[in-house]
Specification:
This protein is α/β, with parallel strands linked by helices and 423 residues long. It has 2 domains: 181 residues, Rossmann fold; 209 residues, Rossmann fold (3-Layer(aba) Sandwich), CATH 3.40.50.10300. The chain is built from 14 helices and 19 strands. The strands form 5 sheets. An 8-stranded mixed beta sheet has the order 12-11-8-13-16-17-18-19, sandwiched between helices. Strands 2-1-3-4-5 form a 5-stranded parallel beta sheet, with helices on both faces. Strands 6-7 form a two-stranded antiparallel ribbon. A hairpin with a 2-residue loop joins β9 and β10. The longest helix has 15 residues. The radius of gyration is 25 Å and the shape is globular. It binds cytidine-5'-triphosphate. Cytidine-5'-triphosphate binds next to α12 and β16.
């Protein structure tokens, strides 16, 4: 696991960084916390020390024999500064070295991430923006602040992003930057197709039948595959997330459009991962103008009439991919490897895992990634818990496994770890 330095600046958002620290340690990373003196006004040294399992220092005069102001930076795989205050950003941009965190920043040769958080006026001030530009110009990764409620009643850009989002971004950097990481480049020369998001089936020009999929897990799968060297085609259904670096995106709306795009991209693919939530049904007809209600109030009461929407089945894209790739009995080389996702709520017919095992057999895919969904679970959230099931008798398949709850980036890494032995 990685050596992470967590530099904490003197802002109120320091309290959120305690959760970020926990995410790192719970996933086995070794974290050295380096707060500034003003950070300790917000969250005290005992908290950082207890959560990291190490003593903390703010100046260069503790433990001098071990030369911490040089050693901590040199040994780091990643330095994360959160919250990065306007003052800390200015000191880092000027190359100052007046405490343990700024000396660490000058000695680190690993990736460095700044997560700024401050009031909107301070963030937008030309001085801060110029300092941020200086840091970016030197290769520092800056995670822009989120917009929303600030410490007082005011709102605007300046909020520290949620710990799960910060962790996901840091993990992605660790994966893509670590030259010795065993996963680096393992998908080089491979073409992978990932579908993400949720289809929308139109009823009329303004309405559709849709679902709650945010696309976060599919986007994380695409990002991790690209970081591991694959050529990635991301077939994206109604997702508003930023496109991961190095990924080709094909935007689609409906299940039929998604089928066309996936089938086309799958022709020369090594792996297809169907993470999209595809509507099983679509309206038989799509009205060419907005469906209006009638206004036929009678003496007997108000008009309660409502239209009936007739649905027809959409194609099962996953099952179609499995059928199209050939016949094992004829000795065909089974490509692409087909991976399905099963979003299950569990019901009277069985538990999430029972339903997923049954779905694996029915769909015939090589790997089924089952996750539990429902109100507030998985859809739209930043974490996920998944179970990996392989087609019985599949050559090279590792055993079933469970992962999470973990950020969707970490789950994506587990899923690719589970696919790679099949290639
Ligand atoms: N899927 C697909 N085409 C569909 C429906 C689903 O390719 N028309 C894919 C999804 O992308 C996912 C997997 O099939 O990888 C399972 O999706 P899910 O909605 O969980 O299953 P369903 O096939 O809809 O089965 P059920 O209605 O029994 O839950």
């Amino acid at each position: 696991m990685s050596n992470v330095v967590l530099g904490v600046g003197g802002g109120i958002a320091a309290y959120k960084v305690a959760s970020l620290l926990r995410l790192f340690t719970e996933h086995g990373h070794d974290v050295t916390v380096v707060p500034t003196a003003s950070a300790l006004q917000f969250v005290g040294a005992p908290t950082w020390s207890a959560l990291s399992g190490k003593p903390v220092a703010t100046d260069v005069w503790s433990d001098v024999a071990r030369v911490p102001h040089v050693r901590i930076g040199q040994q780091a795989d990643l330095v994360v500064v959160a919250p990065a205050t306007a003052d800390l950003i200015a000191r880092a941009a000027a190359g100052m070295a007046d405490d343990l965190l700024t000396t660490t920043l000058l000695t680190a040769s690993c990736p460095v991430v700044f997560a700024p958080a401050m009031h909107t006026e301070m963030w937008l001030h030309p001085a801060t923006q110029a300092n941020v530009a200086t840091l970016v110009g030197r290769g520092v990764h800056v995670i822009p602040p989120a917009s929303g409620r600030l410490t007082g009643a005011d709102t605007g850009p300046g909020r520290l992003p949620e710990p799960g989002d910060l962790y996901a971004a840091c993990l992605h950097l660790l994966e893509s930057a670590a030259p010795a990481a065993p996963s680096r480049g393992v998908l080089a020369g491979r073409h992978v197709v990932v579908s993400a998001g949720g289809t929308r089936e139109p009823l009329d020009p303004v309405r559709f039948l849709g679902n709650r999929s945010s696309g976060k897990q599919g986007y994380a799968l695409a990002a991790v595959a690209a970081a591991r060297g694959a050529r990635v085609t991301l077939v994206s259904a109604n997702v508003t997330l930023p496109v991961p670096a190095g990924v080709d995106v094909v935007e689609v709306g409906t299940a039929i459009e998604l089928q066309d795009a996936v089938t086309r991209a799958a022709k020369d693919a090594d792996v297809v991962v169907m993470a999209a939530a595809v509507a099983d049904f679509r309206p038989r007809t799509v009205a060419s103008s907005k469906i209006k209600k009638t206004h036929a109030e009678t003496v007997a009461g108000p008009d309660e009439s409502a239209p009936t929407i007739e649905l027809v089945r959409n194609p099962d894209i996953l099952a179609g991919l499995v059928q199209a790739r050939g016949d094992r009995a004829r000795g065909d080389r089974l490509r692409p490897i087909v991976v399905g996702f099963a979003a299950e709520t569990g019901d009277a017919a069985g538990s999430v895992l029972d339903l997923a095992r049954e779905k694996l057999v029915r769909k015939g895919c090589d790997l089924l990634v089952a996750n539990e969904v429902g109100d507030g679970v998985a859809f739209g959230t930043d974490t996920n818990t998944v179970h990996l099931f392989y087609r019985p008798g599949l050559a090279g398949a590792p055993g079933e496994r469970t992962a999470g709850p973990a950020p969707k980036e970490a789950i994506a890494a587990v899923v690719w770890d589970g696919i790679q032995p099949l290639l």
